[in-house]
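Memo subject: From amino acid sequence to discrete backbone structure tokens
Action wanted: Derive the backbone structure tokens from the amino acid sequence.
How to read it: Take the token row as a discrete description of the fold.
Attached in line: The record itself begins immediately under this heading.
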Amino acid sequence: MYKWALFILFCLACTLSVGLLLFNLPAKQTAVAEEPAIVIPDKSVDTKAAESVYKSNCVSCHGDQLQGSLGPNLTTIGGSVSKEKIYKQIIKGGNGMPGFEGKLTEDEIVNLSNWLAAKK
């Protein structure tokens, strides 16, 4: 009797396994945390301040004429990337670039983002 009960339990487990494999359960969905939209204020660009921040923090990777070396060419970055994306890249870094959050002030980052976004 015990062998029959185990055999039936084994058959049910196999049937359940085959059923799950044939009728794929939906993939587990992960919740994606949406980042709040970044809004960069349209301030007038202080070109001297932006150039000063650029020279002291960015010139080693992006070149003295924004031509790029280790980092990408920034001479026309504003034509292909929004100022919000530029801001986010400066803050968080990525793709080999360090993040500058905490190293630069908010005003410096906003001014630099607006300055670079004007490069079209």
In short: The mean pLDDT is 88.
